[in-house]
Write a structure and sequence with these properties.
This protein is an alpha/beta fold and about 280 residues long. It folds into 2 domains: about 5-145, HUPs (Rossmann fold, 3-Layer(aba) Sandwich); about 155-279, 3-Layer(aba) Sandwich (Rossmann fold), CATH 3.40.50. The chain has helices at about 15-30, 45-50, 60-85, 100-105, 130-140, 165-175, 175-180, 195-200, 205-210, 230-240, 260-270, and strands at about 5-10, 35-40, 90-95, 110-115, 140-145, 155-160, 185-190, 220-225, 245-250, 250-255, 255-260, 275-279.
Amino acid sequence: MPYETILVHVDHSKHAAARIKIAAEMAVEENAHLIGAAMTGLSRYLYEENTIELNRTVIANHVDFLHQQADESLAQFEQIARQAGVLSVERRLVNDDNQGGLTLQARYCDLVVLGQTDMDEPSARVISDLPEYVVLNSGRPVLIVPYAGVFKTVGQRVLVAWDGRMESTRAVSDAIPLLRRASNVAIALFNPSSGADAHGEQPGADIALFLARHDVKVEVMQQATSIDVGNALLSLAADLNSDLIVMGGYGHTRFREVLLGGVTKTVLATMTVPVLMSH
């Protein structure tokens, strides 16, 4: 299924422009509708429950400031999108916190683009788990852009982390529009003998055949590693000069606490190229 609607997280961080540019370029390639969503940071429940008359409180001036900041971020978004040649662009100001607002908007889109958490950004002191929260709660593929590095291409040389599990299966299916356009797709299986039930008699053969039927040419790479798989995956991506990693996002949530699997946590913390995750 093509990406008909792409959602990008818009904020006032120094990394926003690069993230928006990547989303805009994908929208052009897919001829997709591009939505830029800027959250005010105020929970929507304040508005829904009418617990506070915001226009009469001492925080009214701060609310106005948050709206102005979001509007300025959206103006930058629209300018970048138009310059990239996106034909269908929508600005969306959302009265909600980043986690709840972005997750809710994501459920009506085909792909979400947001940034890796940068602990040097002031917002990270308040919300440090935005990428993982959206991955685990939105039900949509999430493209996470690292805060460090310049990415001239995304999706030309793709590395797929395959382990035969449900999350990995979902990620591969969600990435098919990108995989079809890629010039090179490598499927990496780490220590496949340890997961024989998932991989079958010929590890990687089944997923390669599945993708071939979608006109995706792949190279299957069985990798033995004694280090943790997250670091092994990032190391292989560097060796292959990959510009995109596709992988499942593992973990679960308890209330607002995000609990992640080891590989997911490692990649989110130390990623060097954009990563498409699905849960």
